[in-house]
Amino acid sequence: MSQLTTHILDTTKGRPAADVTVVLYTPLPGDGWLEMTRGVTNHDGRIPDLLSPTLRLPVGPYKLKFFTQEYFERTNATTFYPYVEIVFTVSDASHYHVPLLLNAYGYSTYRGS
Q1: pTM greater than 0.85
Q2: 30 conformational bin, left if phi > 0, alpha if psi -120 to 50, beta if neither
Q3: What is the mean pLDDT of residues 83-104?
Q4: Strands 96-103 and 4-10
Q5: CB hemisphere CA count around 86 (13 angstroms)
Q6: In 44-101, which ranges are continuous DSSP H helix?
Q7: Cα 98–Cα 41–Cα 55 angle in degrees, nearest 5
Q8: Residue 108: its pLDDT value, please?
Q9: What pLDDT is stored for residue 1 in this prediction?
Q10: Per residue in 11-43, pLDDT tens?
Q11: What pLDDT does 35 receive?
Q12: 63-93: string of b/e by CB count within 10 Å (b at 16+)?
């Protein structure tokens, strides 16, 4: 299993958000970010294999960027958020699950299991 997984639940529909592009970034010196990898949510709104199962992220901050505009356009919905960025910290080699609860005018996240 990938050390980092994510999923998106469209809370308006009560269903997974499929076919959403998600990019993982690592920080650059200063204020920039470097893309590490990207994936697309499956039919269940999940990306179980964002990283190779053998890769362990070094301790530090990372960012997941969810490209939500395209999802809402496909579902014929207007959204206030063209994308969602979640910055989090990896503190050890354990599994990190970063879910996104999403609707057109709001979102929330938490550290999942």
Answers
A1: yes
A2: left
A3: 97
A4: parallel
A5: 25
A6: 68-74
A7: 60
A8: 98
A9: 85
A10: 999 999 999 999 999 999 988 999 999 999 999
A11: 98
A12: bbbbebeebbeeeeeebebeebebeeebeee
Amino acid identity of residue 1, one-letter, is M
Domain CATH for 86: 2.60.40.180
Give the span between the Cα atoms of 40 and 30, in whole angstroms: 28
Contact 67, 60 (CB under 8 A): no
What is the rounded CA–CA span in Å between residue 100 and residue 11? 10
> Which residue in the block uniquely carries the two structure tokens 């709104």?
45
Number of domains within the chain: 1
| Domain membership of residue 18 as a residue range | 4-109
Count of beta carbons in the 10 Å neighbourhood of residue 104: 17
pLDDT bin (cut points 50, 70, 90) of residue 85 is very high
